[in-house]
Amino acid sequence: MNQEIINLFDEYTHKPLSREEFMKRLAKLTGSTAAALAVLPLLEVNYAHAATVNEEDDDLIIESITFAGDDTTMRGYLTKPKDAKGKLGSVIVIHENRGLNPHIKDVARRVAKAGYLAVAVDALSPFGGTPANEDDARALFAKLDAQKNINNFLKGLDYVRARPESNGKTGVVGFCWGGGLANQLAVNSPELNAAVAYYGRQADAVDVPKIKAALQLHYGGLDERVNAGIPAYETALKAAGTRYELYVYEGANHAFNNDTAPTRYSPEAAKLAWERTLRLFKDTLS
Questions:
Q1: How confident is the model at residue 57 (pLDDT cuts 50, 70, 90)?
Q2: What does the alpha-carbon distance between residue 25 and residue 172 come to, in Å, rounded to a whole number?
Q3: Any catalytic annotation for residue 176?
Q4: Which of 176, 177, 193, 274 has a CA-to-CA distance to 96 between 20 and 30 Å?
Q5: pLDDT at 50 > cutoff 80
Q6: Which of 95, 103, 218, 254 is catalytic?
Q7: Strand, coil or helix: what is 118?
Q8: Which of 28, 148, 160 is nearest to 91 (CA)?
Q9: Residue 249 near residue 271, CB atoms below 8 Å
Q10: Residue 14 falls in the annotated catalytic set
């Protein structure tokens, strides 16, 4: 698909661009309103593909959980191996700016299948949880209090550490908005063992010396918007002596790991990035 179209969709999903304006510009790029409507299903997510690990998998235990946040009750989707031997490392899975949806729950199940206690936290819990309509969900992110949001996830890390099946070691993996938050949690949680950020906004260079966790950073080569922050971040990481790995997947777009987004999903990049993610978790959380 034309990269201009993919970039336009990225602008629509990350900036205050109305659906009306998005469709108008999409029609201009495709040549007509009819063509724009034909292309739209290829751009938008299809949760029919969000079942790499089935929710009825006999090897997993799944439950809805709540924990105390910053002046709110946080909700989450917990999954873990049914027959785990010994204590487990824990991973907080952080969603994109669409909220806690079937795709992110599937990612949590993938983490659990790899042998970890996984909790996908719903950042929109202060508003009653993620709404079904994605445009409504995206609009709510602008209303989140940034510091309270960080506090809510820090409390999520405390929650999983206190679980009886936890070995006390914690990691986070986040995507897009969640990737940016993974970087922020690395800055704000000295107890964090590992932080994996997929195409997420980088932490400020001045905050990098606070990071104690091992970092792993994944970027799509075509993701100019997010990648603009890489040089300053890497310079700061090197200067601070932070343990980090940084990978850029050439030819891959933003959201290349999301297999429910057909035009941007890159199976090759996603597979390699996930193998690297699990290796880091094995090294730091076992």
A1: confident
A2: 37
A3: yes
A4: 193
A5: no
A6: 254
A7: strand
A8: 160
A9: no
A10: no
Tokens encoding 205? 């260079």
C-alpha 266/C-alpha 80 separation (Å) is 27
CA dist., res. 179 & res. 154, Å (int):
15
H-run or E-run covering 19: helix 19-30
For residue 9, the model assigns a pLDDT of 84
Q: In what order do the strands lie in the sheet with 117-122?
A: 60-68, 73-81, 117-122, 88-94, 166-175, 194-198, 214-220, 244-249
Active site annotation includes 223: yes
Q: What is the pTM of this model?
A: 0.91
Three-state DSSP at 62 gives strand
Structure tokens at 55: 């929710």
Helix (H, G, I), strand (E, B) or coil at 189: coil
The angle formed by the CA atoms of residues 88, 107 and 203, to the nearest 5 degrees, is: 85
Give every CB contact of residue 275 below 8 A, 6+ residues apart in sequence.
none
Q: What percent of the chain has a predicted confidence (pLDDT) above 90? A: 75
pLDDT in tens, 201-252: 999 999 999 999 999 999 999 999 999 999 999 999 999 999 999 999 999 9
Query: Are residues 252 and 224 in contact, defined by beta-carbon separation less than 8 angstroms?
Result: no
Backbone angles phi, psi at 33, to 5 degrees: -65, -40
How many angstroms separate the CA atoms of 101 and 184, rounded? 22
Question: In this structure, what DSSP letter does residue 115 have?
Answer: T
- Measured CA to CA, the distance from residue 224 to residue 166 in angstroms comes to 39
**Of 103, 176, 218, 259, which one is the catalytic site residue?**
176
Q: Rounded to the nearest 5°, which phi and psi values hold at 109? A: -65, -35
From the list 10, 106, 223, 259, the catalytic residue is 223
